[in-house]
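Hi everyone, sorry if this is the wrong subforum. Our group has a chain we'd like a structural model of before ordering constructs, and none of us has done structure prediction before. Sequence below.
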Amino acid sequence: ISICIVSVLFLVNNKRQVSVVINEICSRNASIGTDEEHIGSDYVELYNTTDQNISLEGWYLSDSINASEKYYLSKVYIAPKEYLLLYAVGAAGNNTELNFKISSGGEALYLYNSEGELVDDIYIPKLDTDNVYARKIDGSNQWWVCEATPGVSNHTAVEAVKRELDAPVFSHVSGYYEDEFVLKIKAGIGQEIYYTTDGSEPTKESLRYDNDGIVIKNN
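Answer:
Right subforum, don't worry. Here is the predicted structure as tokens:
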């Protein structure tokens, strides 16, 4: 007898309809910048979804659910359908600099209004250099990893190309073998493997692996 037990969990989103949302995050910036002072600075982009000017006086941005007042937004306005870049430099020097940094390995961000209510939050995955985690359409609920569009519409963004490849999978583990065998190596879709047998660093001029494997006869 086979028994399948299914547990259904219903999640209720208690966040009310909000006018300002977290729209784009860069946590591993090397060369992106909208001004000379902040080239290479990680950033959080906020977006005003309304047709009204909005003051963020009293709003808070945090990277910890237990520290809602991590960064206080003072004397900051966002124009209708416009964007505000906040730079995560770790030391607030002006109204657009955050006093915390964003982990490149992934973490959450929380946005609170002046009444202390959580109005938006998002978990940022691990990102490659100069890629961002952003709403596919400004203010929408669909997110993706794409190339950066700081301070402009996400409609112009293109999907990011993965720069860090998955490690290849070997049919045999490293060790000493008395008998001859065929070593099989598996790479990701669309990836090619080049190898050497003298311990030197492989390049695209080295031997190219094929699906027949590599015959290992001796050391």
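For your construct planning: The radius of gyration is 24 Å. Confidence is low (pLDDT under 50) at residues 1-16.
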